[in-house]
Write a structure and sequence with these properties.
Layout lengths: L5 H11 L11 H9 L5 E5 L3 H6 L4 E7 L4 H22 L6 E7 L7 H19 L1 H10 L2 H6 L5 H31 L7 H23 L5 H18 L14 H5 L2 H14 L7 H22 L4
Parallel strand pairs: 2-3
Antiparallel strand pairs: 1-2
Helix pairs in contact: 1-4, 5-8, 5-9, 5-12, 6-9, 6-10, 8-9, 9-12, 9-13, 12-13
Length: 307
């Protein structure tokens, strides 16, 4: 709140009355950053001359910043806030409206459905590339190829590292094709850092490769591997929010969504590529993917079998 007048204080009190609204008062820049990071659903800016302007009989201006990609904010929360402000406005005077509300977003680019979808498709492609690497490993084990390799001086680490490097190269080429097609055919922008995007693609690919190798240790044959991988893939595809906003998920599904690594990869790619608002800050996304990578890698090494 940038105005400490009596009118502004009265408006603040009015906004705190509805139980559905949880109001916090802070500095403009801090609150807008919190909105961008996904920690706020809306930020109401009361301009410095708000009270003085109204006292002169003129319209005082209020700015409401929100995220249009969050359906709860744009369709539910903003109308509630506007209704409360309108009620306060009527209580000030029976004369024509004294408060002018202006809705704003932090995004300089209006997101379309395809803009939201493309980073999700890229995240899904990286997930499938990593997880289904397990099929090749299980097939080689079933056909005794790994057993023969185990009888040679070849180290497990050498074989795994070479496979990982090959998969990373495939992932980068695959990502490049998706981004180029999205740009040329659908005019999907690339608003963030290319270096950051490549780093997250590599981190995501490594995390899902480690998960795939871990799963391969528990599948004896290719026939048993496919159901196991599908049981992991399908929940992540439909419950991680890569195809629709997390706001559309039922509340009881949110903990499940937050437990899936694909949620964090998709969120990070959307923020980098099209400037979507954050479901989680970047450092959280990177930390969770890094945690999955380390845990799955340790498990894959621990349970790796040549035959």
């Amino acid at each position: 709140m940038e105005d400490n007048s009596e009118v502004a204080q009265g408006l603040s009190a009015a906004l705190q009355e509805p139980e559905v609204l949880e109001v916090q008062i802070g500095e403009r820049d801090n609150e807008l950053q919190a909105l961008e990071d996904g920690d706020r659903r809306a930020v109401i800016i009361v301009l410095p001359d708000f009270g003085e302007t109204i006292s002169k009989g003129n319209k005082g201006q209020i700015e409401i910043y929100y995220d249009p990609t969050q359906t709860t904010s744009s369709q539910v929360l903003i109308p509630i806030i506007e209704k409360v402000i309108d009620g306060f406005d009527r209580a000030l005077s029976q004369a024509p409206s004294l408060i002018q509300v202006e809705g704003k977003t932090l995004q300089t680019y209006d997101l379309r459905a395809i803009d939201y979808l493309v980073p999700g498709v890229l995240a899904m492609a990286l997930m499938q590339l990593g997880i289904f690497a397990a099929v090749e490993l299980v097939t080689e084990r079933e056909n005794k190829v790994l057993k023969r390799l185990g009888a040679t001086p070849l180290r497990r680490s050498t074989m795994i590292i070479s496979t990982v490097i090959f998969r990373l190269m495939v992932a980068l080429v695959q990502a490049a094709l998706i981004i180029i097609i999205a740009r040329l055919v659908f005019d999907v922008p690339m608003l963030g850092s290319w270096l950051f995007l490549i780093s997250m693609i590599i981190l995501g690919t490594l995390a899902f490769l480690a998960l795939g190798y871990l799963l391969s240790a528990f599948a004896k044959t290719e026939r048993t591997a496919m159901p196991l991988l599908m049981s992991i893939q399908f929940p992540m595809m439909f419950l991680s929010g890569i195809f629709f906003p997390a706001e559309m998920m039922p509340d009881f599904m949110i903990p499940i969504m937050n437990a899936m690594p694909l949620t964090y990869l998709g969120d990070s790619l959307r923020q980098i590529m099209v400037g979507s608002s954050a479901l989680h800050p970047h450092y959280i996304n990177a930390a969770v993917l890094g945690g999955w990578l380390v845990v799955c890698l340790i498990g894959a090494i621990r349970f790796f079998r040549w035959e």
